[in-house]
Amino acid sequence: MDYNCHIDGDDLLCSLIPDRKLQAAVFCCSGMAPLQVVSGGTEKRALGSYIEVSLPDLNPGEVHHFTLRYAGGFTPANRAWLPIGPAIRMGGELLPLPPTHAGRDVSRNLPVLPIDGLAVVPQPTSWDPQGETIAVDGVSGSGRAYENAAALADRQKLAFRGTFPVVVNKRDLPQDAYRLRNTPEQVIIETASYGGEFYALVTLMTLLRSGELPIGEISDGPRFDWRGQHLDTARHFYAPDTICALLDLMAMLKLNRFHWHFADDEAFRIPVPALPELEQHLTFRGEGQFLPGLFTAAPMQGGSYDHETVRQIIAHAAALNIEVLPEIEAPAHALGLAAVYPDTRDPDDTGGETSVQGYRGNVLNPAMPKTWDVLEKLVDGISALFPFGHLHLGCDELPKNTWMHTPRALALMQEHDLQTTQDLQGWTIAKLAAYASSKGLRPAAWEEAAQGSNGGIGSNAILFSWTGQGPGLEAARAGYDVVMTPAQHLYFDMAHTGDPDDWGASWAAFVDLEDTVNWDPVPEEDLSDRIIGVQGAFWSEFTTEDSQMWPMLMPRMLGLSMMAWQNEKPAADALRELAGYYVIDESGRLMSPDMDR
Questions:
Q1: What residues are labeled active site?
Q2: Burial grade of 159 (CB within 10 A; 0-12, 13-18, 19 or more)
Q3: Which of 254, 341, 361, 593 is deepest in the core (most CB within 10 A)?
Q4: Does residue 530 fall inside a structural domain?
Q5: Does the reported pTM lie above 0.85?
């Protein structure tokens, strides 16, 4: 089957030359946003960005042209906007078509430049060199931090285990801080915490990539307690080994919070025993499944992280000094959840609210008793698996005017003197956060959770500012602890550049390596106690294979690492010089600077 598609202005021009007779054939695909048919076929079905197009009957070798266009004024920016997961369905069989070649690995083109200092990301707080280096084949130590660092080095194919002695002394230093004294006789680590010892060993491991140990003293410690990276495993199911490889990369960059986004409109990836229907219906998408083949050309796509796998991933993270933050979604981004449990929506709701992804009916109704039964079981079931003691509740992208045409929600609003959609959202998320808090959890949510006449989520919640930096500053002024994750700087699903041959989303910005450090997370000094960290994000709507993630994350995770750790704003030029030392391969493992790229 010969298939081709290219961008022409606002249109996606597709051609198909079948190798067999096509009768009653249907073209299936997803996009970056909802699609519509311009010519060459008729829409048969649409759900969000997923569309099915009925084609005319075709003979073998007969060329057929059809045109699609993004609805809502979206303009394709690059190759990632071409049909995602294209396939032909005919006679009960799904025939995958050639996908668009994904990704653009800008890292491979980065030169290895001489560094005036240490080739380490993030840069240490201070480095006092003694003017010499010695050859070291590896270091010898003992204890949990050494064994975990050595195991990390083994996975990264780095020479670390050896005979040069490492001594650890306890000193009164802040959390995750350390001193590293490299002498001609031994390495001395001073720290007060497991994290500090582990990060000292990571720094040592990185220095030894050259085979030589620089003699001198490093004094180091992080700027922020929260140094995070998010991964959306709802839109694309990543293998557990891939998640562990991401955790390894985070550890090499001294990041310490993994935000695990396993629930969204399209899937719920972790079983909750009290809600078995979630695993039954929202584990897989595709032919004959509860939801169609969103973002995939495979007849069936998906998977579930069973409880043993979850525990293994958490243990892997803990060894790397990383806490795992789970996220459920409420009240929006609940298309699948609401479909599985229809009693979470008012049957008399006459509203037609549509999410930015093109989904209708993807919001739970807080006036329905079933909503609270489901949400409380989610809180109980998920929190029981994760020892971090924090739970992200979601609360983003509520469609405009939601609940304004549902009698039950309107009655609830009148009962509590609420006037707007945002007021009811604030009331809803505050109630859910209070329940989480009663279970000993610290709630977290996206920036919208601060909205509403009641003052928002409350309950000592952490808010994540994503549409930009402004909402985070407002939340910090209102007394919330804030993690900055502005899309214009730290959304790594955004394309690197505006080149049409690039790959990625573009609704927020094109995010180059320099963009990750060309901003200040704390522009107002009096908010420094409230802005507790920074975090990168990776959303997976256009990811169809695990390996496609790495060229998007890197080298931009280097900027995240430097912003999260360094007390002074890093220079963009220095970051670009260091980037050549942190090129990764298709499995997320660091490559040697002298390897052919």
A1: 397
A2: middle
A3: 254
A4: no
A5: yes
